[in-house]
Design goal:
By secondary structure, the protein is α/β, with parallel strands linked by helices. The protein has 10 helices and 14 strands. Helix content is 26%, strand content 16%.
Amino acid sequence: MLLALPLASAWSCNDDGATEVLNKVPLGNVDEQAVCNDGSEAAYYFKDNGNPSLWVVYLAGGGWCYDEKSCAGRFDGSGYPHHDCSNSSEASPCFMSSKDYAQECAKTGVFDVDEHHTPLSKANKVYVPYCSSDGHMGDGEHAGWQFRGARIARAVVTDLQSRGLGKGSTLVWSGGSAGGRGAMVLLDEIAERLSDVKVVGYLDSNYYVDVPSFSPDFAGFQMQHKGVLQNFNAHSVISDACSAANSGELWKCLFGQFRMPHIKTPYLMVAAQFDGWQLSHLVEDYDGIDPSPSFTDEQTSYVDDFGAKTTALAQTLPSANTPWAVVYSAACYNHHISEKSKFWTVTTNDGVSQNDALHMLLHDDHHHSGIQLIDGCEGYDCGTGCHPAVSVSV
């Protein structure tokens, strides 16, 4: 019997199977403007494993908002992740505040303590919960809320430098879903800032594809990016190279398909060919991830075309601007599984997991510019490694 497919898309603590416990570190003393949407003090979770040579910083996900209406819905629970900030708790946190942050946060997936499950088992580990609703991209104020995601991420780095991140360190700068998109747009900046640190990116489910929406009720992801750029002041995360290539359409520099060719820092990028977040919105106008979609023939044709386009675009990466990268694209319907056990159990048709791919990023001899781990089967969710029968430790 196949287990239900966990489709992580929002930040969380104390998930089933969690093995590593991180402790909360407030950021108010680092940058007083590193705040959540409601002005509360931002924070991150940290586990010091006594390993100054290896660090992972992971920006958490959880959708976003992009204008006054969508942010109001995010606050009152009518919008994703459907948590009412006026009646929230640790178990069902407000995604626009730090008021529900626990003192401890237990994690698995890429954070796991088992060296067979992740090459980062012994790393110093940082998990940045998500309370800025801006894909970790903003540094502004809009409609009475603060959008300081980029400032929060930069403050985390500043604080880690005081804790031993520096010369001789390797930093895996990472994130999933909205956190993957934030890690993407900040990756080169962090690498340039930490010139004495070996920085690599691990970008999980960051890769939006520029297609029109199938559902007439969903306006598309393009306009959301325009809103984030204009309303939340996301200009600081736009690189000069991307700006020059997309003059007049700077929103594209926040959008995976258009930003990834300009990344200069080595990375592992994970793009499911049937990304659950994108397809749920584009096909069904489903505000979240439909755990078990049932597509009509017409919808299936659209979904198959989406998968084919994702595959074709993934095959163009890494671009000539990137000295070294691993591009990972399984023919699966999933999204943002790097915080779950499926980080090491879901595979490509060739049996390669994200755990394996991250090993390649960190340990390959770099004699070539990149590795493409891209499934070649055709049709919705056709990957043979998408649904492992067992997703527990072995």
